[in-house]
Amino acid sequence: MRIKRSIWVVLFSGLSQLSDAACLSASQLNLLAQNEQTFLLNRIPPAFAHAVSDQQVKFNVTEASADSCTAVLALSVPAQHLDEANAVLDADPAKKIMLSAQGYVIPRTTNIEATFKVDPATLHIPAIETLQTSALGQLRASVEMLYSLITQSRANITDSTKNATPWSATYQQASVNRCTEKLVAQAGQEIAAACACRVNQLSAQVSERQMAYIDYVRSNPYAVATGSSQHYVSLESQANSACGLIVK
């Protein structure tokens, strides 16, 4: 009888351990966090990429329930970024009301969480978990809006804006290449030299990071409509004139 009882104790103990077993391993949870970061980096304007690069934004994924294979994404952002985005909205109450009516809101706290189900075999997140009505979809939308507003704000420059950090060689070359595609040099000037002159003119006042914000705004019709980077248009025109460049 004692032997049988021992067997049952061992059996129930084993079943308990199986029921407590994690659905997702530590490496899978890390990969989910990396996947989500990559997804957002490919989707959200450049202010987000800079925040991630500066380690101001943190990602972490933990398991919420092994039974349903549910995970929790925890994302933290700096309080200063919330203040910066709120300042943009407070300066334009009509925009704030319009965006809110469409379901777009920035995070209310620096720590944001979303619970979602995941397929443990493929780490695929079902489409229903990414709709804007879902927790994960809402988190993604709120973070995207946060850094869209920050990008638009940082695209603005003033007449007194100066830059003390040289552009990287890679970005300088990319800027020269874009210049040669869109502009022509006046008679008697070489296009490469004229475009290099333009880069020197612009980089003296605008940082490489701020150029990323300006480039985004100028490629985004909605952001352009907000009036962001208006001063840059004047600065660019002055640089083109000084370097003998004309738009094709």
Q: Please state roughly what percent of the residues sit in beta strands, choosing from under 5%, 5-15%, 15-25%, 25-35%, 35-45% or over 45%.
A: 5-15%
The average pLDDT value, as a whole number, equals 88
Number of domains: 2
SSE pattern: HHHEEHHEHHEHHHHE
Q: What percent of the residues sit in helical stretches (DSSP H or I)?
A: 55-70%
**Main structural class:** mainly alpha
Basic shape: elongated
Largest sheet: 3 strands, antiparallel
Number of strands: 5
Low-confidence stretches: 1-19
Q: Distance between the terminal alpha carbons, to the nearest Å?
A: 95 Å
Largest beta sheet: strand ordering: 1-2-3
How would you describe this protein?
It is a single chain. This protein is mainly alpha-helical and 248 residues long. The protein has 2 domains: 135 residues, no CATH class; 79 residues, no CATH class. It is 57% helix and 11% strand. The protein is built from 11 helices and 5 strands. The strands form 2 sheets. A 3-stranded antiparallel sheet has the order 1-2-3. A hairpin with a 4-residue loop joins strand 1 and strand 2. It is elongated.
